[in-house]
Fold:
Amino acid sequence: MTNGAQALMKTLVDAGVEVCFSNPGTSEMHFVAALDDEPKMRAVLALFEGVATGAADGYARMADKPAATLLHLGCGLGNGLANLHNARKGKVPVVNIVGDHATYHVKYDAQLQSDIETVARNVSPGFVRTATSTETLCQDAVEAIAAARTAPGQVATLILPADVSWGEGGVPGAPLAPPTPEPADDATVDAIVSAIRSGGKTALLMGGHSLREPSLLAAAKLAAHSGVILLAETFPTRMERGEGLPPVERLAYLAELAMVQLTDVDHLILVDAKAPVSFFAYPGKQSYLVPDTCKVHTLVAPDQDITGSLNRLNGALGAGKAEPKLQPARRPGRPRGKLTAEKVCKAVGHLMPENAIIVDEAITSGLMLSVMTAGAPRHDLLTLTGGAIGQGLPNAVGAAVACPDRPVLALIGDGSAMYTIQALWTMARERLNVTTIIFNNASYSVLNIELERVGAEEAGTKARSQLDLRGPVLNFAEMAHGMGIHGVRVDTAEDMAKALEYALRMPGPHLIEAMIPESLSGVKRRILPWMLRSLPSLPLPVTRALKRKLAP
Ligand SMILES: Cc1ncc(C[n+]2csc(CCOP(=O)(O)OP(=O)(O)O)c2C)c(N)n1
Ligand SMILES: [Mg+2]
Structure:
């Protein structure tokens, strides 16, 4: 006889869900036991649920298919919420299996009893289901996987009561094929052709799945043929870039700078992207970043065929044979002297290996990363799609599990690293090829900038202390050792480059702790809000020059 958990395991692997990032408890024991019967399922233990969910996110971004998470009731799911939020915002497929009490136990309101569906709905609004019987469990699972995989991708949550899991009579389900996305229709293409031919300045805003090679090449042909400019959303789920690929400028994080990029655009064409809004509201500032004079068109919605739509547009414009502009090889020199965040990024650009996966959660320390790596060998970039920090280290775990032959570089702020530091242990245990660089600036530096920007009254010591990580200064090299990872602390650019060379040469996980000052501090930080405020009154070439300097 097959129990529910065994049948579920078979259903998952038959649908291509072959990795489970887990943090189990008693209610999941039958699922855990069923792992032994299914050689095709890889189980990766995480020591905090935020690591499991962030790893599932990173895995799916790189594997283009979902992993499962195994989480313990409402509390376990809740612990994993921030990274499921990042997955939801990034339109990344994830299948959560959340264990629950046996159905007949619920009425006793035992210690771990909670409303799991309410927790789940926040991150998987499109699919939350509690399985009700062993016989129907696998049909629920098949539908959960199909929901996760339906374009553009989403988080699906299947809640698994313990008695449904241990009950006999489980019947594995055959996978459902997700619907094939359709390209944009004629009317949409025609309207955009007219907009492009109208002579105004036109930009494509590319997001989601459009930042991969086939769509990038199609967009670059359009750019070469029609003078359309290419922009990428601020925090891409996955962006292919570097030598030989079309360069695309990302919209700036700071709304004032994004407005500089958009100010003279007459037509903004959305390609699997939303019309841009500022990350936060600021007193007296606009939330919606599209200028009043700009018309927004949607070429491709997230559930549509992106490359197919771009090809149709190119066909209609006669751009199909245009020669796309590609990024030439270009690396920065080897950095020297006292270490700064910029020099760490320079070392990364100088040494980046072929085919790397870069996870960027460097926050303020990554301001120069884009320029320093623009002409590096071709790579994938994963970013903080939902703004919930603690994503980078887990994402790196998932990316390395998905792509064992590719080097993964995780660039992480010290504050961000501490949310999900347990990921280091999983990297060690699974011997993942991840080189983690921690930017130890002993600060929530970006919040110091935000403090000035929101116009909060002059901040005193108590306020500042909430953004300050000195006292005690964290020691990440020691934390790495404590979790079985080779870790070094560096404070010169020479040592940084040497440590990176070593890490990239030796297989397995490494951690380099870069001791750096804050990228923006002192006078620079104090004049920033003033400068941002004055941007609208300055001539456009001046504002563009300032933007290039601040956030190239
Ligand atoms: C889950 C979550 N909690 C809190 C925040 C608020 N927050 C944004 S950035 C940040 C600090 C980041 O510090 P660090 O990683 O050291 O980068 P730095 O600002 O120093 O460059 C915090 C706490 C958030 N974005 N997400
Ligand atoms: Mg910091």
